[in-house]
Design goal:
transcription
Length: about 290
């Protein structure tokens, strides 16, 4: 659980000042009791990782900024590369809210139905707006897929920073990273659905290949830096960190695809067991 420092509390207050509605409305939007939000702001309770993630998502900032004051601060997870297309300008709450609403709807529809089954009109209907409004923010359907991938990467990064920031032991952190990659029902399974479709489209679209490569490199580097830290702490074997990362990420990908596609005998529980066994057998120093 995160330490609620004065700087973190101040940045959340800054977010609240820019929010177009009341503090109570903000608390309800992030699914937090208003009294708990007040206590967190005064330092009598801590924000949970999930709360920090929701604050970042609703306000359009990153968890890294909330905790460390910069989007690209060096932290427990490798930061995503900044996008040339980043939506509305910061500070424009109305525009940012509409953009995020459209992106949320598109992300959920693509995860649930598949990229080729989602039309611009479907997104417009889900948002209660017009197709012209969707096109204003996303000129074409390919732009929607591109931005849903960027969104998934940002969600994963925010969640990793929020969950791992206070874990100093590299062994514990690596096991938590494994847990955060399991396609459990809900958000994580939806993220896996997005990735599965991006892999398919990337095989045919060179432009998407570049974005996919940049995004995957972030995940790869997060694992690699955790393994290197564990080696420095003396808890992991001295086997080449890059080779261990390649093998572990390949295991995560292969097992995740098998679970997601319903291969008999493949379950989240078995995936967890296989990955933890690999970490204990091949990475942990004995």
């Amino acid at each position: 659980m995160q330490d609620t420092t004065a700087a973190l509390r101040q940045r959340v207050r800054d977010v609240l000042r820019r929010y177009p509605d009341s503090q109570r409305a903000f608390a309800e939007r992030i699914g937090l009791d208003p009294t708990k939000l007040s206590k967190s702001l005064t330092g009598t309770r801590r924000f949970t990782p999930g709360e920090l993630t929701r604050i970042a998502e609703v306000s359009g900032v990153t968890v890294n900024w909330l905790i460390n004051g910069r989007d690209d601060a060096e932290t427990v997870a490798a930061a995503p590369r900044r996008s040339a297309r980043s939506g509305p300008e910061p500070g424009d709450s109305r525009e940012a809210g509409r953009y995020q609403q459209i992106l949320d709807a598109a992300w959920k529809l693509i995860a649930e139905r598949g990229y080729h089954s989602v039309r611009i009109s479907d997104v417009a209907q889900a948002c209660g707006t017009s197709a012209a409004t969707i096109h204003y923010y996303f000129p074409g359907r390919d732009d929607l897929l591109t931005e849903t991938l960027r969104y998934s990467v940002r969600l994963a990064f925010d969640r990793q920073v929020a969950e791992l920031h206070s874990i100093s032991d590299a062994h514990e952190r690596l096991l938590r990273l494994v847990e955060l990659q399991l396609p459990t029902p809900g958000l994580l399974r939806s993220e896996w659905s997005i990735w599965l479709q991006v892999w398919n489209e990337s095989a045919l679209n060179p432009d998407l290949q570049v974005l996919h490569s940049d995004s995957y490199t972030r995940w790869h580097e997060t694992i690699a830096r955790t393994i290197r830290q564990g080696q420095q702490q003396g808890v992991f074997t001295d086997t080449d960190a890059e080779e261990l990362t390649v093998t572990l990420t390949a295991l995560v990908d292969g097992l995740g695809i098998q679970v997601l596609t319903g291969r008999p005998g493949r379950s989240v529980e078995r995936m967890r067991r296989v990955l933890r066994d690999f970490v204990e057998r091949e990475i942990v120093r004995h």
